Amino acid sequence: MTFRRLAFSNIKGLRRKYAAFLFSSVLSVIIFYLLASFVLHPDVVNGYVAQAERVRAGLRVAQYMIATFSFFFVLYSSSAFVRSRKKEFGLLSLLGATKRQLSRFVVIEHVIMGLGSVAAGLGLGIPLSKLMLAGMSKMLQVTSPIRFMVVMPAVIQTACLFMALFVVIGFITALQISPRKVIALLREHQRPKTLPSYSPLIALLSVLLIGGGYAVAWHVDGTTIVSAMLPVTFVVSAGTFLFFSQATVWILRKLQGKVSFMYRNLNLLTVGDLVFRMKDNARVLAAVAVLSACVITATGTVYTAQATFLRDEEVSYPHAVTLTISGESDPSEVLASIHKVASDDKVKITEEVFLTGLVAYDGNDGGARLATLIVSEDIYNQWAKEAGRPEVSLEGNQGALLIPWEAKPSEKDRKPLELSFHGKAVTLDAIPHPFPRVNWVYPIGQYVAVDDALFQDLLKDADPSEQAALISLELEAWQKSLKTGRRIRETVPDEHLIGYSSRLESYEAHKQMYALTAMIALFVTGLFFIASGSMLYFRLFGEIDEDREKYRAMRRLGLSKAEIANVVSRQVLVFFFAPITFGASHCGFAMKALSNVLRGQDWPFLGVFRYALWAIAVFSAIQVAYFLFARRAYVREVFEAPGT
After folding, report:
1. Looking at the predicted structure, is the pLDDT value of residue 604 above 70?
2. Residue 296's closest CA among 534, 625, 615, 522?
3. pLDDT of residue 84
4. Pairing mode of beta strands 398-403, 444-450
5. What confidence tens digit (pLDDT) does each residue in 474-520 have?
6. CA torsion angle for 182, 187, 189, 190 (degrees, to 10)?
7. Mean pLDDT in the chain?
8. pLDDT value of position 96
9. Averaged over 216-224, what is the pLDDT?
10. How many other CB atoms are found less than 10 A from the CB of residue 271?
11. Other CB atoms closer than 10 Å to residue 416's CB: what's the count?
């Protein structure tokens, strides 16, 4: 038998141990190819896709993150496999294999796994890229969908990168095989384990570190979050490791001292074995807990940012569409055309502001500064009556300064307002008056209602170019009304349009970037989370030989297969869900810190945390699926051995 055949047979025989590793590796290849196929797609490279350049930078960063993470993940997995196969390497040494041959054997194994991962990843990634390109086309609002094609540069880049990754890690792993004595290698798994030691003081310190980090996160604000972020992360991570290595052992040893608890059901076997498992796997459990916290927090933060962006859009643009048009167009005809567009598109107008007036400027600057729209008392009251707004009563040189932020007017804010219109100075006694929030449209910066007699006096000298109208609309389901907004804009000729402001177009442009950010975050965090589950899977199966011996002894003592399966289920349950419980807890306090930063935008903690809850629910579901798969495979592997 050649070394290649031996390596292939070995992988086939240890398929359950390799399952999670290969699954995560294939997933890494798929995600990397999907991102590369978009970045290197001819339509994107040649600039046929709008917004593509801004998107490509983020996708490249995601590629680097996936490649870096894949390297360390595969390196960890390979090291774990080597540690779990000391007996196998000892047997090969006993049969005459040299260190050079063992190293070659390990490298060949990695090449075979690399070829399998790349082939399966590209085989699945290429058809999946069609779905991704369709989704990208929709998010980027391209006029014609991005073509589906096999992007050969992406295929070559993915294949070369991951094959090089597996080969390099194969050589690194081979260096870990030291020429130890054959007997020592064969008896490695037979060495009796000593009862894990623990320090109550260190266990208490772990709780204090986590609690201290939580306390800082709870009270941090926008001015201190940057300086507190890294120290809190370090302190909580250190506390998490110490908790799994010391506090869990202390808790389990205390439980062992409670006779009534230990002799109930199968607690004696479950707790006794967990003491060793928690101590041996403290680093992995802590790493998975911290990684889970980062993944869940990042996902919750991305979706909170999207929700914050939506609120910011509504604050920055109070109305969906606002236009100011020159008097050279008939404002009534324009408004009628807008109503027809909305009716044709089945879009309901929920609020409407329609005022016609004159354009004046501050002092005698001739229009160098912001303009003021002067409307008559009669026109304003006619609109206010229809809109259910308070009317005004003016006389002489009084003016109602319309405050478009729903501010409560005060007599203290009364002030003289000096304007220039048609070369004539106009001085008004301006009284603040509430007015609907409308979009700010340059050059008109404020609105004022004046007495009818004064307005008519100004109107008689006005040219059509000095007259204007304000049309501001709020649309129902405005997020889906971009086409309607563009059609409304087209109702006014460019030469007659003074100013235009649309929440719809601003929202659409930013939504694309946030949607793509969310997609990248989903890819990367999904990979990280599945990989963290794989790390637990590796550790579980890394001790399968010792566990077989242990469960075989239990069978000789009279335990049934069902009872042993029950013990296994309890241990695997703790193994898989203790880290994600800590991760969810860490995430909760991280989101509290985020809510403190967003407090100025009226974001309560529960309003922010609900987005993290969605992430926790999704990742918990993934973890449940992983747990069920791992438990079934582990129990089957244990009971397939003779004697169990």
Report:
1. no
2. 615
3. 66
4. antiparallel
5. 999 888 888 899 999 999 988 888 889 998 888 877 777 777 777 77
6. 180
7. 81
8. 73
9. 85
10. 20
11. 10
For residues 289 and 23, give the distance between their C-alpha atoms in angstroms, rounded to a whole number.
Answer: 21
d(CA 330, CA 335): 9
The pLDDT-based confidence of 607 (bands split at 50, 70, 90) is: low
Contact 298, 521 (CB under 8 A): yes
DSSP string across 271-291:
HHHHHHHHHHTHHHHHHHHHH
Question: What is the DSSP secondary-structure string of 87-144?
Answer: HHHHHHHHTT--HHHHHHHHHHHHHHHHHHHHHHHHHHHHHHHHHHHHHHHHHTT-SS
CB atoms within 10 A of CB 575: 23
Residue spans of alpha helices (H) in 396-477? 452-459
Percent of the chain whose predicted confidence (pLDDT) is above 90: 17
CA angle centred on 523, ends 521 and 529, rounded to 5°: 90
Task: Report which of 640, 614, 627 is spatially closest to residue 534, judged by C-alpha positions.
Answer: 627
Cα of 457 vs its chain's centroid, Å: 60
Tokens of 182: 């054959």
Query: What tokens were used for 227?
Result: 């300086």
Report the distance separating Cα 388 and Cα 407, nearest Å: 17
One-letter amino acid of 583: G
